[in-house]
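This section describes the prediction task in plain terms. A model, or a person checking by hand, is given the sequence of a single protein chain and must write out its three-dimensional structure as a string of tokens. No templates, partner chains or ligands are provided. The sample shown here is typical of the held-out split.
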Amino acid sequence: MMNKQQCPVCGEQNNCGLEESKLKNCWCFHIGGIPQTLLELIPQENRGKSCVCERCIRKYNK
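The expected answer:
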């Protein structure tokens, strides 16, 4: 079972600023969005439960 601190794509820490600090700011607000096709790679049972990490987004966008 995934926790909110794990990336649903790779399983590593997602460093979610919203979860970690309860602030209304996170690195993901400045990365330019998460491609829909990357979101579709998340297994159905893990969708909407945690944030994709910056590393996976950057890797996917290359």
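For orientation: The two ends are 29 Å apart (CA to CA).
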